[in-house]
Please model this.
Amino acid sequence: MTHSAPSATALYDIPGPLTRKRHRLYGIVSSVLILALLGWIIYLLFDTDQFTSVKWTPFEYQGIQELLLRGLGNTLKAFAYAAVLSLALGALLAVGRLSVHRPLRWISTLLVEFFRAMPVLVMIFFIFVALKVQPLPALVAGLTLYNGSVLAEVFRTGIHSVDRGQREAAYALGMRKTQVTTYVLAPQAVRAMLPTIISQLVVALKDTSLGFLITYEEFLHAGKLIASNLDYDLPFIPVVMVISPIYIGLCMLLSWFATWVAKRERRNVKTKAVEVAPAEPGTLLP
Model:
């Protein structure tokens, strides 16, 4: 089996023998350093008795497992609420920013810029402490205001990315502005916006971990309760080693879904260019 050699481009030159040796040496040195770092971390974990049975015993109890599952369920519930409301708020603010009415456009722009600049944690604390809202609504409201304002810009940019000729052709057919946006621009813009929308939802999923700061019993809050247990010699590192892969797995699942959606849209027959048959001589007029 033969492998084709890399071809030179304007930004890439085929490396010579000395360059290939140097690259191979860099790869070996980097691999050795990474393995040494991992070995040092594992040594520290064993040296500090992080793998003793006492610290891993809590995860064998049904009560601890139910606590983690309940926290994971609360995390997913907060994320579901925040995702739906963020999409709705983003669409509403995007419509306001695209409006032909100047006051509505100014108000929408002010709201978007304000909530985008405001830290999520500050908004959550303000809603929870100043407005005396319950933990779940306070967390969902803070996530909705921030992610909704970001998604508003995503929607607005997606609408503007559609070719101008599509808008002009729709107006030429006698369609109103609302019809043009709903039936012509939005369906085409969604294909380009969908990966970015899902990526922003990944941010919302990660930010649900801020709920433990306002005593919301989400996944990280459940891990904190277990990690601070003196009966099991403060199993902080084991809790991190259990909770982190689950968070990373959820975020990777959403990221994979975004990649899959993008590839599927590129393969969609509705988005592919139609092949046009070459011109041929027709019947000549007398």
Notes: The chain has ten helices and no strands. The mean pLDDT is 82. The CA atoms of residues 265 and 271 lie 7 Å apart.
